[in-house]
Each structure stands twice: as structure tokens, then as C-alpha cells.
């Protein structure tokens, strides 16, 4: 079969499952993925968002052929993930990059380029270019063992970019970066998308996901619990309003008999959030109890709220980790 990256979606995952054997006798199992479906279209930035242990890295490791799935299929450009030719189209940033410490940043990125079949003057120029893009030109001659965590992260991203891949798969790309570094990383990812690169990345940093993604999937306990464009997902949230009440204490507000989404006491006032449908009833109850409504405004939909709702709806005792069977 010929490989034509324009024909098939860059990533197609169907019913993917992964069970790890754990325990001293390997007699327990952790279900890290439970029937995951994903499809990433060409040129998209797709985010995997989820709490610790949700299965994000496992998904990425399966796509990079570092972990074998227990069931289901994972295809890159329509091909099984173990095809070397497909793999060459992908630049990969692992969760905890551990590059050869005795190489300099420049040597490491050059080696990565050579492993992708690059060489000569073209490679030298490209290495210079990507080290500049990740703001590491100043340290390119320093051995990696002298780098800080954030510098290692930057040089690891440079190795992912060096071959001008058609797709980037990035596991926690902003981890270990300072605010300036996080901003640079975001700008780099957006610049890659602008030149047509498909990007899959995972994170639990909600502002990064919000700033970058065209689409996203929320994973909890190895299952996809939300999926769509950021706009679609936010507009599907139930509208609610923020109300500031004066003259009542927090306990009094909580006992008005109206279901409240959140409450916060602020020097003599109570700020609360309530579903739009309940807001009129709440106002009536506040006035009847002798309180005053200081302000009322539509609550801003946030990805954080969506994420918290997704965790709540998933009904798991803990949001952390896969399902452990003994
Ligand atoms: N090599 C392994 N052996 C046993 N269990 C594992 C292994 N790798 C992951 N797990 C388990 O699988 C589940 C999913 O882990 P995974 O690393 O995919 O989650 P994650 O969403 O990337 O989490 P984090 O945000 O904390 O990096 C967790 O319960 C984890 O303990």
C-alpha cells in the first residue's frame, strides 16, 4: 500500500484499551484505557485534557509504538503505528525527556536530524533554526547535563521539530517551563499549525489547552467523557449567572433552598453561581430573607468549569488514575 499522508486522517483511534499488570506477582491490573475513540484531522491542534492517570500518556505512547495496546486500533495516516515510514512523519516530545547528557544541545539535535536521514549543510542550518526557535542558541554548546529542566524541555522540542515533521505529538509540552517559556512554546505550536503541521498534545494545564486547541477530548479513567471544539463544548454548558448578595451570611444563603453551583464569602458579601433557570427563584428568596442583590451577571463559560463538570459526571470515587482490579 502506498503511503499518502493527504488521504487518511493523521490520527485514528478506535476502541483503544490498555491494561497494565501491576503488583509484586503481577496479579493486579490497571485499566489505563477503556475503549478510547479519537480522530485528529489534518492541520488541527488537538488537545487531550485529563486529571493525573487519565490515560493521556498511555494514548501517546501507543501512538508512538512505545506501548502495545491490549485491544482496539491506532493508526497514523491510515497505517499501523509500527510502520517506520509513518513514524518518520512525526516529531515526538516525550513526557520526561532524557536526552544523552554528555552531548551538547547542538549535538543532540543534530543526532536527531541524522536519525531522520538529514545531513550536511541543510541539517546544520535547520539545527541552528530550531535551536533559535526554542531560544536555546545561547546554550547550544553546553552539555545537556548542565541544563535546567526547562532547558532540557526546550532542546527536546527542538529535536522534535528538526525534521520538519507533518505531525507533532507532544506530551505535556509546557511542563517545567517558566511563564515566558510557556508563552514561547504556545507561539511555536501555533506557528507550526500555521505552516500546516498537525499537533496532538496532552496537558492538565487548562489555559494552555484553551489557548491552543481547535478540538479537545477530556479523558477520565481511560474513557473519553467530552469531545469537540472548545467553542462547541463551552456553548453546550448550561448557562448560569453570578450573583453578589449583601446582608446575608454564607450559611443563610446556602439554606435558601435553591441549588447553588458555587459560593464564596467575601467581606460581608456572598458571591455565588446559580443555574440561569433557578436565578429568579433565588432572587425572590434572597429578598424574602432580608438580603440585597448587589450585582447579577451572566457567568463566563470556562473550560475549567467544563473540566470539573466532566469529572463530576464521570461519577468516579477519585479522578486520579486508571481502574485497579485485584
Ligand atoms: N508502565 C505502567 N505500569 C503500570 N501502570 C501504569 C504504567 N503506565 C501507566 N500506568 C497506569 O495507567 C494509568 C494511566 O496512566 P497515564 O500515565 O497514561 O496517565 P496520564 O493521564 O498521562 O497521567 P499524568 O497526567 O499524571 O501524566 C494510571 O493509573 C497509571 O498508574
UniProtKB/TrEMBL annotation:
Q: Fetch the PROSITE patterns from UniProt.
A: ABC_TRANSPORTER_2
One Pfam family here:
ABC_tran
Q: Which residues form the ABC transporter domain?
A: 11-246
CDD domains from the UniProt entry: ABC_DR_subfamily_A (cd03230)
Q: Which residues form a coiled coil?
A: none
State if Cell cycle is listed as a keyword: no
| Gene Ontology MF: a single term | ATP binding
Recite the UniProt keywords alphabetically. ATP-binding, Nucleotide-binding, Transport
Q: Which Gene3D superfamilies does the annotation name?
A: P-loop containing nucleotide triphosphate hydrolases
Hey, which family's this protein in?
Answer: Belongs to the ABC transporter superfamily.
Recorded protein name is ABC transporter ATP-binding protein
Source organism: Myxococcus fulvus
